[in-house]
Amino acid sequence: DLNDIFACKKANDTSFAVKRVDMKIAGDANINFINDLVISQEFEKVNNQNWMLVKDKMIADFNVIEDSRATMGFFGTKTTTYRNFEFEETRDKKIYALPTNIVVLDNSIHKEDDYWKQARHEELSKDERTIFHMIDTLKTLPVFNTYVNVIKMVTTGYWVKGNFEVGPYMSLLSFNYLEGTRLRFGGRTSNDFSTKVMFEGYGAYGTLDKKLKYSGGFLYMFDKNPRRALSGSFKYDIEQLGLSQNAFREDFLLAGLFSKNTTNSLSMVKEYKGSYEHEWFTGLSNTVLFANRRLLPTRKEGITVYNETTNDTTSLSEITTSEIALNTRFAFKEKIIMGEFERTSLGGKYPILDILYGYGINHFLNGDYEYNRLQLRVHHWFNLSTIGWSKYSIEAGQIWGKLPFPLLKIHSGNETYWYDETAFNLMYYYEFVGDKYLSFLYTHHFDGLFLNKIPLMRKLKWREQVQIRGVVGSVASKNIKYAVLPEGSYTLSKPYFEAGAGIENIFKVFRVDAIWRLSYLDHPKASN
Predict the structure, then answer these.
(1) Contacts of range 312-315, beta carbons closer than 8 Å, 24 or more positions apart
(2) What pTM was computed for the model?
């Protein structure tokens, strides 16, 4: 009787709840390396009032290729159980200000077998006990440890050997017009040496310029959660001014092998730098930085400036700056992955804001110029319902002071065939200089919205994306006169734009973009 059913439902509305959920992905879901995924959750009524998650189990079938029957893969399982819920006691608010949701105390997992037998909510099955034994055995096999070390080297760039990590291996050999063949050897201390302090350094030699370059530094962790870190470094080495923060290092092997042009804009830099990072609570941190830099241009003409006394231009053989800066980073509810010394941001629901203010101190440690600079950057990614996801980055900045062009904002170009998300990929090095600017990037990933409609493409799991980026800016009149730009450098008299489209997830690794330059096509080295 429908009346009885509705009456029963009305009487029990306050106690209806989900007791169990079983979920499974579609067989042809466009997810890399996962052939199957099953999630099971169980809920119980606790305190005769609240329905709580008491068991959460996930099973995943991982494989490099689609057909797991053809090649060896592996299953991953994770089971989480919850007991002893407390609703009355109020926890210390400091707990919720930590940057991670789970904090594992030192030596908390190093317990005897008897402890785990008592503490474990569910007894291990026979298969699970076999897996434990198998893993303990694998750890004693030299061939297995060799595979582990090779995988670590590929993913981190360093070969771990006891207390030392040799690398980065992609910088052991490289090429450039200034040094010819560049040989480099260096590394850093490993976690076996210390999880509190890390030292690193390298030495490099160019067969063409026959000069020795070197660098060294340290990172000391006062605390990791929240993060409190002190670092210091020195270096004497070549540098490409105007590189983006995401660009390959100057001595990265692939940067030289896949260069579009033979650049002649490298500079020698002698730098001493120190910083202290202080995380106040989850998502808010400050970093105080100090740097003393001596810039030695390798061009024969040096750095040209206008001398008002002689009413003529003067060539500077070097520039020294001493700068103190404060960086503020605000990332509300950001999710991160933490290692002993490094962090990786996974982003969050809200935009991330970075604000940097720097002050150049004249006559301090031979500083040649006084200036102020301010830089603001906001970036964010977000889902767009069923049509994919987008991300944007907006950066604005201004520099106050009468300065030579290397101390102005050199907009980030890219003269390699490797795509750089934080640079203008059809702008060449030193092409545009300014002291006031606003740049933006917007890119949208369709995640196969169109290609999934084509059977073959759906099986390949290729995905589409589009992008547009641009920058507007200007130069103060005093710097237009004082900072004599080198040949091939310009100020922004109108906006610069690039647009592109591409295919990503090719063989689950590669992405290929077609990019068009939409302005300043009349410049000598410009390519559309």
Answers:
(1) 313/484
(2) 0.84
